[in-house]
Amino acid sequence: MSKPRPISGFPEWLPPQRMIEQRFLDKIKSVFEVYGYAPLETRAVEPLDQLLRKGETSKEVYVLRRLQEDSSASSPDDSLGLHFDLTVPFARYVLENSGKLNFPFRRYQIQKVWRGERPQEGRYREFVQCDIDVVDRDTLPAHYEAEMPLVIGDALGALPIPPVTIQVNNRKVCEGYYRGLGLGDPEAALRAVDKLDKIGPGRVATLLTETAGATDAQAKAVLALAEISSTDASFADSVRALGVSDPLLDEGLAELVQVVETAAAYAPGLCVADLKIARGLDYYTGTVYETQLAGFERFGSICSGGRYDNLATSGNERFPGVGISIGLTRVLGLLFGADKLAISREVPTCVLVALSDEEHRRAADDIAAALRRRGIPTEVSPTAAKYGKQIRYAERRGIPFVWFPGDPDSIKDIRSGDQAEADPATWSPPAADLHPTIN
Amino acid sequence: MSKPRPISGFPEWLPPQRMIEQRFLDKIKSVFEVYGYAPLETRAVEPLDQLLRKGETSKEVYVLRRLQEDSSASSPDDSLGLHFDLTVPFARYVLENSGKLNFPFRRYQIQKVWRGERPQEGRYREFVQCDIDVVDRDTLPAHYEAEMPLVIGDALGALPIPPVTIQVNNRKVCEGYYRGLGLGDPEAALRAVDKLDKIGPGRVATLLTETAGATDAQAKAVLALAEISSTDASFADSVRALGVSDPLLDEGLAELVQVVETAAAYAPGLCVADLKIARGLDYYTGTVYETQLAGFERFGSICSGGRYDNLATSGNERFPGVGISIGLTRVLGLLFGADKLAISREVPTCVLVALSDEEHRRAADDIAAALRRRGIPTEVSPTAAKYGKQIRYAERRGIPFVWFPGDPDSIKDIRSGDQAEADPATWSPPAADLHPTIN
């Protein structure tokens, strides 16, 4: 075959990068679990009609067909598409299995998702999302909306990445405010405000008048709300000072105050109330989240989500939820691109057992087996090449120790050159060398 | 929306099952890493022409198109399909990145794969494979063929599943023997023998005469080879006793003896040389592996692989490899179906902090934060319901401990009913209760 080439939008990491991703995933999972979130996976495919329920995303979906499928026999109703996020599949899973789940149901889900969008830096066609969600039957207490940023703050805080800021807003604040203003189409207004960072206030004002039926004064008032932000509860006073009143606005402000104050108590500096945050997807009904990675703000949010009251609803059953999702591939892509992450070795291996000749392979395997039994990642040299070449095998991969069988055996730290007698039944590496370390 | 239904062939686990799968994955990964295999992932898609290089699998491929794609603009050459295994993508990855990899290159890869086959018990359209492979540039030492079963023996042996037997054979034995017999089309003969378990020796004999041009005597001789098996090196004598000679046969026998003897030394009872094992895919050129799960033999191999010398080849570059793949979804599906696996709880949570009233939520959150900081998975009660109801919340999920804030705080083991004073800064659960346990 001819030399293969990458496919745009479908990133693949080199071994050291994938080692870093794996360690990020381990950290994220362990934080999610310490908060009691249970692991869950859903299939990669959903019926196409389910994926298209949200008009905004229809352009992005990958549709599947079997190569040998009789295309005349299959109706579009049966078509399957690859999921474009993990929230829509999760809502479907909850409805499908509601009789077998215990509510409130807390789960994390780490999987690839696919979107047929135009690829660009930080934006992919295949990428990994790390989601947590809580859903409950009929009603969902608001304190879960305050919990999401804390979990994410711990998870991202455990990673060797620049600091993050989680921007929070509440759909009820915007919708209530727009209603109080007398705006006829609050959803259209939200969609316009969602473009603020991209197109600026002037063009958003135009959009508001053109698509949301706003007067100039209303457009100005909408933009005034979007300008408000604070790291404490003072944003609520700023909103009230705009002189608009509506019961939904009051409800949203109270919820947003709770989120910001909880975050200020447990993770000072993590959250900011930012009233321009809208989120594009239209299933959110309460708190919404976006997250900025310091130094990479221009690439957009790396962790987003919100509360959705109507996504998992069927007949009389209703499961309101709240969730948030780390865009891991985007984080890694940006940091790899900026050369901000490195790992001490590109293999898990801590010890390479050297080989004097092929006749002694069994003895070398015995040493490796003894070290592995005690959890020390070990390889045996691929060939009985000259020792210098075997040491280079270790060096190229960042393996810190080479074991020389002998009488007695000895172990060499190839970074310092130090060599000492060692017994495979008792020798252990320094704790910091057992596993690779990042940066 | 109407209540959603499962899609045949796309299994989804319930929370306790997914907890079990997650713990299986953790064990498998940790064994792969202790042998020095580095994690790797490839994208889910490959160019269709790559996937169709092996004629046998073309019927199984899922092809992708973007919903809004202009179908007239895209040529079939650009089509993408979902990968049906992890070996073909890995070979492509090695060729694509050969200048950036260190050889021999050892990697593990745990991902979903997709095949549009007819679903049945133990056979899915979407399933997880856990692969290890070693590839080297130009030549690959045969000792890696002996290593594969040892890694798999350790990985599967670490799981609470019935014992396994790895059946090994070597394509060179079969091809050399067929050549020695004077058979014109050894590949057709292999494909016929591959069906032995499904259709029996009588119909295989017919197939051999019809598709591989065998005489009755040759067909009989082919079946005689397929009947040979042994847990030690004695199979080689049985083969020689059939009186066929060929240099490739001798080479294959020597390699197979090495695999079986290494396994007998490090994992007695794990491997058996079984000369009817052929493997359907035609890229194998040396050792081949299949694995039987005791009590579930009729569902086929749960872990298969082999050596492939020509899969990753481009121009002058050639990367022979050997690999093996655990069919994790099949293993889990069979054991779940037989009700053979259970887990002590369906959430990671070890402690539920009870709540006397909503005003004390911050105090309960403080306790949870203190426990989490020491790695103890903790949740706070969703509501300040009566304590009996809060305890049932824990019971239903299998959470072993409920924490009652007070002066002093106390912790109750809800299985035994024992209750004792506790301090969130120092209390720890028994080690066996920190994480869920299987069976």
UniProtKB/TrEMBL annotation, chains A, B:
L-histidine binds at D85, L86, T87, R115, Q129, D133, R279, Y283, Y284. GO terms for biological process: histidyl-tRNA aminoacylation. Residues 413-439 are annotated as: Disordered. InterPro entries: aa-tRNA-synth_II, aa-tRNA-synth_II/BPL/LPL, Anticodon-bd, Anticodon-bd_dom_sf, His-tRNA-ligase, HisRS-like_core, HisRS/HisZ. Residues 104-348 form the Aminoacyl-transfer RNA synthetases class-II family profile domain. Its EC number is 6.1.1.21. SUPFAM superfamilies: Class II aaRS ABD-related (SSF52954), Class II aaRS and biotin synthetases (SSF55681). GO terms for molecular function: ATP binding; histidine-tRNA ligase activity. One of its GO terms (cellular component) is cytoplasm. It holds the Pfam family HGTP_anticodon. Transmembrane segments: none annotated. It catalyses: tRNA(His) + L-histidine + ATP = L-histidyl-tRNA(His) + AMP + diphosphate + H(+). The keyword Cytoplasm applies. Keywords: Aminoacyl-tRNA synthetase, ATP-binding, Cytoplasm, Ligase, Nucleotide-binding, Protein biosynthesis. Homodimer. Belongs to the class-II aminoacyl-tRNA synthetase family. This is Histidine--tRNA ligase. It comes from Asanoa ishikariensis.
